[in-house]
Amino acid sequence: MTFTEARRPRVGLLFSYDWDTLAFDRLKGDFDFDEAGFDLFSFPSNARLIGFDLNRFADRQARRGRRERWAGVVSHHEQFGALAAALVAERLGLPGTPVTAILACQHKLHARRVLAEVCPEASIAFADLDAEYGGSIPDGLDFPAYVKPVKAAFSVLARRVDSREELVRHTRFGRRELWVIRRLVEPFERIARERLPQAGTAHRMMLEEPLQAAQYNLDGWVFNGQAHALGVVDAVMYPGTQAFMRWEHPSRLPAGVQQQALDVAQRFLSAVGFTQGMFNMEFFHDAASGRLSVIEFNPRLASQFSDLYRRVQGLDPHAMSLALALGQDPAALPRTAPVAGAAASLVYRSFSPGDAPPMPDPGQQAALAKRFPDALLFMYPKSGHALERDFKWLGNHRYGIVHLHGHNEAHLRQRAERASALLGWTAPYADRLGSPIADAEPAAMGTLISGA
Question: Helix 175-195 and helix 54-68: axis angle, to 10°?
Fold first, then answer.
């Protein structure tokens, strides 16, 4: 992205971490960035949850934006950032996603109600769970059911339950857990009470019809009210679980079904007033019946997938999000030459405490960067209460993620197995889990981003 203005655009980046940090670092030659926010998953940064208020945060950033003459404000952070960016853009009169549209997407029960009205064929059965956190579970519920929080992120506390007893166990929280849950939800709740009161409280859970079908993500953007598709990323689960094993692009989903997904997204997003911004729609598709069922809408870029589009399509979704923040049509941005025919986000998990392998040491990390210079490595070591909470809320511990690409799907898998062996981890392919992996020299590939 190149600008002819004498002064580079200055953009506020809110709650920008991991993939966002890497992606925006690449764009620093064309932009000046001011960052704000805190990491929810590391201490002492996450101590700022105590007393955190989104309106006060947005007021501070708006004052900063006026002082520094921000041309735009961006965040792809689900829990706080997307809503904060919308609030700041509104205060500064900058292009952005309307606040009520962010709220309508992130309040999962309200979003279900809207979807049932405007896209009934893509909706599923759902119900409010009429109980406070840890409260008594009402009788007369139908099982099995899928239970999840009305406001959450990263699939926290979302799972299938097959009986009332299992639901009761799943919704019993200790004082430490309740403290975290309430402080993650309350900042959203305060804004929703004021701006979207018809949605009702977000301090609750909901039930949905459990489905068994392949899962996908439609990524795209809306400009001047018109939805456009970046593409679709396929989800592959660990066998017998609801836990993602890897994400793959390009998709195997037929083009007609991808267009059907975009049509559903357009109707829903129009209904909630989503006139501008990046979006991500999670959905099921049953190939046998042809049924497409929406899981949820995320009113921001799915940052984890941005790198996959860049490798395979030559599109830079982070650059596109900046164009939108400046009020520009991202379709006008140039593409770069793709470097791969297939790319994946490989997710490494442990399903019982104590089973996670050690984190790669500096020598292993250096070997990965040398032999696979396109690799991106993220490590998530946890212990103590944080590890216990992972198993309670998610049923597993995600200890690492690696991004890689290949000439095609087979070549990608070959490289994934070799890279995993270097790290001392088992490659996330179902038929190789728990099996030794032979090491070998990797095939030559173009460099995208150096390993971290």
Answer: 60
